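The aim of this short unit is practical: by the end, you should be able to scan a pair of folded records and say something sensible about each. We start with the first protein, listed as its amino acid sequence and then its structure tokens.
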Amino acid sequence: MCGQTVEVVHVHGNNTVERFCGFKSFASMMRGKSCVLTEIQAFSQSDDLVYPAWRWFHRNDWLLGERSTEGVYLITMEDGMPLVVNAYDVSRDPYNQSTKDKPNNVHNFERRRA
């Protein structure tokens, strides 16, 4: 049980789901992964609209690690709204931005209130 922390749900391209609680677990899971953070979206609290909150696209020159993990902390702790973080696996197609649109390469990280 997450208690007062944040539950993050990692949905793989094959629809398997990993659930873990808190930002430390999120950072630990992300560290060393060959993914690039491409976009963070925030859900409006007043309706179901999803709007882009921050776009952060680098190709394979900035893999998710300590620096980008800090960026995730800054964004996710900014306010109380749930966030969706979209990242894609650059190891499969590192120079093609369209990789993030291919289902098997997309990793969705959904921030929810626990």
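Turning to the second protein, read its sequence before its tokens, just as you did above.
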Amino acid sequence: MSSTAATQSDGYYIPPSYIESGDYKKKSVSQHAGSKGTNQSQLYGVVRFELPIKSVCTHCNYVIGKGTRFNAKKDTVGAYFSTKIYSFTFKCYECKGKLVMQTNPKDADYDFVSGIRRKVQ
């Protein structure tokens, strides 16, 4: 009959002299120091964004199809009542021009801010 306190629930014994020396605390604190997140969104604000409709780059007139995916920088730019308005900034595949879109919760749509426009059918 062993207690989990004796094994520290890790399956091995840690002697009291090791804990009293302070080495145990130094190791456990330093191994998690500086961690700011585990993925691109938490570290840099970069998300995988998929275009909801067919669009055109205004820099080079390249047609970007619906469903094309980009690594986009996601920023909060405002709010509509309690719903956040997000801005997505990404680059055109052809000319590397800056494209900016925003969510529009009022109309349940997207606003094309700069560098991009809707493709007229």
